[in-house]
Write a structure and sequence with these properties.
mainly alpha; 211 residues
Length: 211
């Protein structure tokens, strides 16, 4: 189980960063170095194998092409076909900074987490939430944070992320970001199953229009 926490923490943090940061900002945030990751282990897990393949796709991709996809789907620069913020799905009004964001912010405060996001971005961006998941998984290596981990997955993340990623998948061009989405789905599914996370039934209000 220790390996699960350690591996999942690493993968979750990096996946979150790839969702959140623009490709042109990778160097500033140390992501360029991460793209050179190699497990080095002969019998590494399937999760790490797929992780390495996803990073290789990002490393081999053209920055301009990556930036175009990121700007359209994850940066909030224009109208978002599949918004990456939890409150759009969990709040009846489908707005940013809704009640679900307030609940999530309270959860972060209880954990002692503080964020200074770019341009006061909502904290429930899929990328930021995956980075938080990585931190909570890492905390579990040193102390018992199972309750906090289950709250994050079962109440704040999985009730909307499963729907979001499924809506996003057919709209993303094949390549690096498509691989990122697939790996994220695999990671979250594995954590839900391995940790026996009970997912809260929360109504999803936002459905993407057919394209």
């Amino acid at each position: 189980m220790t390996n699960l926490y350690a591996e999942s923490a690493l993968v979750s943090k990096v996946l979150g960063a790839l969702f959140y940061y623009r490709p042109t900002d990778y160097a500033e945030h140390g992501i360029e170095h991460v793209l050179n990751y190699q497990s080095g282990a002969k019998n590494c897990s399937e999760l790490l194998v797929q992780f390495g393949k996803t990073l290789a796709q990002f490393k081999q991709s053209d920055i301009e092409s990556l930036s175009m996809v990121h700007d359209e789907f994850f940066a909030g620069i224009s109208d978002m076909p599949v918004p990456p913020w939890g409150s759009v799905y969990l709040d009846r009004e489908c707005v940013l900074f809704g009640e679900s964001t307030t609940q999530y912010k309270q959860y972060l405060t209880e954990l002692g987490f503080e964020f200074n996001t770019h341009n006061n971005d909502p904290l429930d961006h899929i990328g930021l939430m995956l980075m938080v998941l990585g931190e909570v998984l890492e905390m579990q290596l040193e102390q018992d944070t199972k309750n906090e981990l289950h709250r994050l997955l079962g109440f704040h993340l999985l009730p909307w992320s499963t729907h979001y990623l499924a809506q996003l998948t057919p709209r993303i061009p094949s390549g690096a970001y498509s691989s990122l989405i697939g790996l994220t789905q695999s990671l979250l599914s594995q954590l839900q199953n391995e940790l026996n996370v009970q997912v809260e039934v929360r109504k999803v209000y936002f459905n993407v229009q057919p394209h």
